Amino acid sequence: MFEKQGQKTDLFSGMKHNSYMRIAAIAASIFGLSANAIADPATVLYDNQVIEIDRTLADPLDLWIPLEELSKLNDFAVASEQICLIDFCVSTDKQSNNPLVIVRDQTDWVDVTRLASELNQLTVTDYDHGVWSFGEIPEQRKTFLESGLAPDFELTDRQGNPVRLSDFRGKKVLLLTWASW
To answer: Does residue 20 lie in a domain region?
Structure first.
């Protein structure tokens, strides 16, 4: 079964995957199955890398990994009560109704799927094979675009005068290029 964030569907029943999996989790708790059990390893695809996560929490919808392994997936820094990327931080309040970080067996676990949702990061999941693919984090792209500078170059105008890109610093510039192959 594949899932594109926000569009989880069970192909067999037509029921929303989220509802179906929550019913399964409730049934598991009624019959004494532990919802906090360690699950199978997961494979994460991010930033042109394949990252193997050995320990995950059993959850029908989300990927929970040990907090100390979060840096294997991305460039987040974990501080007290926050997970930060550059200037963007997400609270890890464990007392909230829907915590991003929980404690099980003296280990802090982070919900990577929810973190991606908080970041507007696209995800695609193959639940059957335990593969989670995370797209680019928009906040990272934003800072690159704001700080990116085009390299300076010089061309001659129609009158033969040299014109440098740096002559227009601080102004909006539209560059048109054309090539004949």
So the answer is: no
- pLDDT tens series, the chain, 181 aa: 444 444 443 333 344 444 554 555 454 444 434 445 677 899 999 888 899 999 999 888 899 999 888 888 877 888 777 888 767 788 777 677 667 888 888 888 989 998 888 888 889 999 889 999 998 877 766 666 666 677 789 999 999 999 999 999 888 888 888 888 8
Q: Got the DSSP string for 68-133?
A: GGHHHHSS-EEETTEEEETTEEEE--TTSSS-SEEEETTEEEEEHHHHHHHTT--EEEETTTTEEE
Q: With respect to residue 116, please indicate whether it lies within any of the assigned structural domains.
A: yes
Q: Which domain holds residue 91?
A: 37-143
Within a domain: 148 = no
Q: Are 98 and 137 in contact (CB under 8 A)?
A: no
Sheet containing 88-91, strands listed edge to edge, beginning at the edge strand earlier in sequence: 77-79, 82-85, 88-91
Number of domains comprising the chain: 1
Instruction: Tell me, yes or no, if the pTM score tops 0.85.
Output: no
User: For residue 154, is it within any domain?
Assistant: no
